[in-house]
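User: Is it possible to get a 3D structure for a protein together with its bound compound? The compound here is zinc ion. I've pasted both below.
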Amino acid sequence: MDDCIFCKIVSGELPSHKIYEDSDILVFLDINPVNPGHTMVIPKKHYNDLLDIPTELAAKCVEVTKKVAPAVMKAADVDAFHFDINNGAGAGQIIFHTHFHIQPRSKEDGLKLWLGTPTDQDKLAKMAESIKKEL
Ligand code: 5GP
Ligand code: ZN
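Assistant: Yes, that's possible. Here is the predicted structure of the complex:
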């Protein structure tokens, strides 16, 4: 896609710190890391988000992540990571080229996750029914 930053990184029009690539996947460092070693796993072909990317290609991103993430943890000297996707603007997605984050974590890094809110079984049951109806 012409105006997509990640397509430009794939084509080499924009620079990046590449870690791994094969015919379908590119892995490079996030320019604005939440922690050192924050890494992006992307398909070389443009898709908008998780719902758009073919399942086999998303699975390949997971396969590559399982290869790369142990190296990221070693290099960043941590023992954990988030593997996540911000799907849609409401979830904070700013680059609309499917990408998975590998975010190195440790208990000592001081980052705080958002908190869950306790709810009751009735609300959970109603929500489960609403979602199942939409499937
Ligand atoms: P999103 O919120 O869309 O899931 O995250 C997009 C990520 O892409 C952000 O973490 C941001 O730091 C990263 N990013 C944005 N522009 C560039 C860029 O030009 N190069 C690299 N390497 N990462 C970028
Ligand atoms: Zn793109």
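DSSP finds three helices and five strands in the chain. The mean pLDDT is 97.
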